[in-house]
Design brief:
- InterPro entries: DUF8021.
- Keywords: Signal.
- Pfam families: DUF8021 (PF26061).
- The protein contains five helices and twelve strands.
- The protein is an alpha+beta fold.
- Strands 2-1-6-5-4-3 form a six-stranded mixed β-sheet. The protein has a six-stranded mixed β-sheet with strand order 8-7-12-11-10-9, sandwiched between helices.
- The structure holds 2-acetamido-2-deoxy-beta-D-glucopyranose (2 copies).
- The site of one 2-acetamido-2-deoxy-beta-D-glucopyranose has 4 residues, from α2.
- One 2-acetamido-2-deoxy-beta-D-glucopyranose binds next to α2.
Length: 258
């Protein structure tokens, strides 16, 4: 009797909890985050009681991070949504001002209530970061299309995760590069460094240090995966790798590395 009551209770809750984390809700939360970064004030954000702010792979007080301390004039923003992980990814570019920034941010939410943020996880690149030139990066980014893909063209979540992992494994696994479906006209924008086609000059192992601390935002509709990590293969660098597939093949790769 008690068991069946519990089960009924759980089944009653389940569909609501899963349905709540919609693409629209995640993108709306990302917009609130972007607005907060414009002002450098965090009072508009709905943060969970166990909220964590991480910047460049270190947990710090939000008021000390770029989000809580710096108003940025933004040139562009672009967000993706992961309805399974109840998370989003946003890329922001602020190229003017004394201190330009390129931010790669994942928001994680309470999966029963996507308006409540449990974690803001940012890679904040600025002057001195790898190949950093925000104006140059902006030029490349603005020429790209990240429009939603037609349903038949959307890669599976599984493929997106595999491509993201294989990419980060190239430095430690000599065979990883050959498992990636490179598009012939793909572009790689690493900081502000452009490589086209992106399948040219790839690493084939050589490091014994795997890239660690991988956090994923996977969006089948946009055909993208973003992975934040500690890029340990070449040193301990806070890093974001974002990849978009079109027609089942890699179209864009963006890296933001501190
Ligand atoms: C993000 O960029 C879009 C244009 O792509 C713009 O309409 C929107 O206002 C921007 N969001 C914020 C919060 O600035
Ligand atoms: C924080 O609380 C939310 C519920 O509000 C829960 O979903 C999440 O797992 C918690 N996170 C941690 C790290 O405890």
């Amino acid at each position: 009797m008690r068991l069946s009551t519990t089960l009924t209770g759980l089944l009653g809750l389940l569909p609501t909890a899963l349905a709540a984390c919609t693409r629209e809700a995640l993108l709306a939360s990302a917009e609130i985050y972007i607005a907060a970064q414009r002002t450098g004030k965090t009072d508009g954000l709905k943060l969970a009681s166990n909220f964590t702010y991480r910047e460049n792979n270190k947990v710090i007080d939000i008021s000390k991070g770029v989000l809580g301390s710096t108003a940025l004039v933004l040139d562009t923003n672009r967000s993706t949504a992961d309805t399974v992980a109840c998370a989003s990814y946003t890329m922001l570019i602020s190229s003017g001002g004394a201190k330009p920034y390129i931010l790669a941010t994942q928001l994680r939410h309470d999966d029963g209530d996507p308006s409540t943020i449990t974690m803001i996880d940012t890679i904040a690149a600025t002057t001195g970061s790898l190949f950093f030139n925000a104006k140059k990066t902006l030029g490349y980014i603005q020429a790209e299309s990240w429009a939603p893909l037609a349903t038949a063209d959307q890669p599976s979540r599984d493929l997106l995760k595999k491509v993201g992992d294989a990419y980060l494994d190239m430095w430690t696994d000599k065979n990883a590069a050959d498992t990636i479906p490179w598009g012939t006209d793909c572009e790689r924008v690493e900081g502000s460094s452009l490589t086209k086609p992106c399948g040219a000059s790839l690493p084939h192992g050589g490091s014994s240090q795997p890239n660690a601390m991988r956090r994923y935002v996977i969006d089948e509709v946009i055909g993208s995966v973003d992975v934040l990590c500690a890029f340990n293969s070449l040193g301990n660098y806070p890093d974001s790798h974002e990849i978009r597939l079109e027609g089942g093949k890699v179209k864009y790769v963006h890296t933001i590395t501190v």
